[in-house]
Amino acid sequence: MRVRSAAGSLVMAVALTLPAACGGGSSPAKSSVGKPAPTVSPPLLELNVGPAPWPAPDHGVQRMAAAGLPRLKAEALAFHVHAHLDVFVDGTRVPVAAGIGIDVVARRISTLHTHDRSGWIHMEAPRRETFTLGRLFTEWGVRLTATCVGGYCAPQTHVRFYVGGHERTGDPTAIPIVGHEEIAIVIGTPPAEIPSSYDFQGSP
User: Fold this and answer.
1) What are the tens digits of pLDDT across the range 43-63?
2) Side-chain half-sphere CA neighbours of 76 within 13 A
């Protein structure tokens, strides 16, 4: 079922500085961050290696740069598609942070971002562009490897990735984010059903 939460403080702040081409959402929940791990390339940014849920990170514009994404003053809609991300921990869905790829202080927004906590991923760019799960997690500031997501790592905790209901192996950072596609990250005990699709009603 498609979830669109009520507008919250984060998106309200963004709306004051950026055109809101898509729906807003609730403010990101705060959670404790585990022991940080540095990224391999500059700028030196910490990665969240704690338990879910993971909040939107600080240093938004720096994380956009680390992901190789532009820092725009407003949403660009020449290329405009949506995808959906689900994250499950021991069978329970946990929220994807609101405000990934949005820096309210710097008044910048990237071409890959989230407005609310529904898992709705916005890809809005001046031209057609290729986006990957790795770029989203770089903006999010959460560790993502073939064996670890945040603070969950194999072999202690199984981590699996699904696209359209089909398991993907290999490097998860290379998984493309495609319009109208459902991506699921399953950590630990899987849910009763792995989602294979998402209701994009109203999405262009």
Assistant:
1) 578 999 999 999 988 889 999
2) 17
Q: Is residue 104 part of a domain?
A: yes
DSSP for 112-153 reads EE-SSSS-EEEEEESS----BHHHHHHHHTB-B-SSEETTEE
Has residue 142 been placed in a domain? yes
Note whether residue 116 is domain-resident. Answer: yes
Distance CA(62)–CA(71), nearest Å, equals 9
Q: How many domains does the chain have?
A: 1
Range of the domain at 72: 9-187
Question: Global pTM?
Answer: 0.80
Per-residue pLDDT tens digits for 79-134: 999 999 999 999 999 999 999 999 999 999 999 999 999 999 999 999 999 999 99
